[in-house]
Design brief:
This protein is mainly β. It contains three helices and 18 strands. A 16-stranded antiparallel barrel has the order 1-2-3-4-5-6-7-8-9-10-11-12-13-14-15-18. The chain has a two-stranded antiparallel ribbon with strand order 16-17.
Length: 369
């Protein structure tokens, strides 16, 4: 017998994709016929193959990785179809996705929401100033990496990015002065990377973001989160801060410094806190068709606040990667990355239990405009 309750979310997603394609085609036709159209559509496809030398039998790479995390198979990290609308007083975005990224990173969300990349509406609340109110599902205000690999300097994401929010749901008030050097935002959120609230949690979470661009070659960003990711009966306040800065050193050289630090109460109403933190540095060389990037990172979460412990062993991880990119034609991007992760304990479980993990990943991605 067919279980229609299980099939219904899939049917909703399929119909949503069809509807979005129809609307996008209409928007594209409008764009072709009029330069004043306010509709914009984009699609992005990222296909990858990754080989983990630990040879996990279930084909899943270490549990703290959510992008490009399938071993020894050709598959899709993300296939994204999005439509945007904007004019001088209002804006809206809707994006639908499929692939291993939403499968693993949105595993805690209801089935009907797992394929939503974003769905938000914004209105300008000042006639003279760039002051906006946005509500819905939005990309996270935290970090310098996203699920869209072409926008990231490295093929795989840093441990720092993989274990902080990629998306959020709530309300955002943002302001950008005419100089464009500053960006300020305050948010009220459903939780730490949550569309659906945890059952029993009725406490709003809060976020802030401050970005400063002193020159065209420097970005300095500070983002924060305060909230609880547990039911109110066992509420543990979480305090988190993300800092990063990107520097364009010359026409071809640039680097990014990032640092996360977070604290969470050890138990309800406790004065003592569990801490985790992560520094990362990425150096990149890029010319017209080629790019090379290297990353060095460290992540410590001794109490398992963010990254689950394995056999009660503290999570202390060093990471090193080398990335080579080749742009082919208009937008086609081929990437290869080697990555080494080293733990202070025998953290990795595969055919053997070991303290290091090596992998090679390659991908081909293409944005359709």
């Amino acid at each position: 017998m067919i279980n229609w309750n299980l099939l219904m979310p899939c049917r909703i997603v399929q119909l949503s994709f069809v509807l979005l394609i129809v609307v996008c085609n209409y928007a594209n036709a409008q764009d072709s016929g009029s330069k004043k159209s306010h509709f914009y559509w984009n699609t992005f496809l990222d296909i990858y193959y990754s080989y983990d030398f630990g040879k996990p039998a279930n084909h899943i790479k270490p549990q703290f990785l959510f992008n490009h995390n399938r071993h020894n198979e050709v598959t899709i990290n993300i296939a994204l179809l999005s439509l945007s609308y904007s004019d001088s007083t209002k804006r809206a975005n809707i994006g639908l996705m499929a692939g291993t990224y939403p499968e693993y990173n949105l595993a805690s969300e209801p089935d009907a929401l797992r394929n939503l990349y974003e769905a938000n509406i914004g209105i300008k609340i000042s006639e003279k100033r760039e002051l906006w109110l946005d509500a819905g599902i939005m990309p996270s205000h935290i970090g310098f990496e996203s699920a869209i690999s072409k926008d990231c300097w490295t093929l795989t994401r840093s441990i720092l990015a993989e274990n902080s929010p990629y998306y959020e749901a709530g309300i955002r008030v943002s302001y950008r002065p005419h100089s464009r050097k500053w960006y300020l935002a305050a948010l009220v959120l459903n939780g730490w990377q949550r569309i659906k609230r945890i059952d029993g949690n009725n406490t709003p979470a809060f976020g802030t973001q401050v970005s400063y661009l002193p020159t065209d070659n420097v970005i300095i960003n500070s983002s924060s989160f305060i909230g609880s990711d547990r039911p109110d009966s066992v509420k543990q306040w979480r305090y988190f801060h993300n800092f990063y800065s990107t520097f364009q050193l010359s026409g071809v050289w640039s680097f990014t410094l990032g640092f996360d630090i977070g604290f969470e109460q050890k138990h309800r109403q406790a004065a003592s806190l569990n801490k985790w933190y992560s520094p990362v540095i990425i150096l990149r060389y890029k010319n017209k068709n080629w790019a090379v990037a290297t990353r060095v990172e460290y992540y410590q979460d001794k109490h398992g606040v963010i990254v689950p412990l394995v056999n009660s062993k503290p999570f202390q991880m060093q990471g090193y990667s080398l990335n080579i990119d080749r742009t082919i034609g208009k937008g086609l991007l081929w990437r290869v990355e080697g990555r080494l992760l080293k733990s202070s304990t025998d953290y990795f479980v595969g055919q053997t239990v070991r303290s290091s993990n090596a992998s090679v990943t390659t991908s081909v991605s293409f944005p359709f405009h």
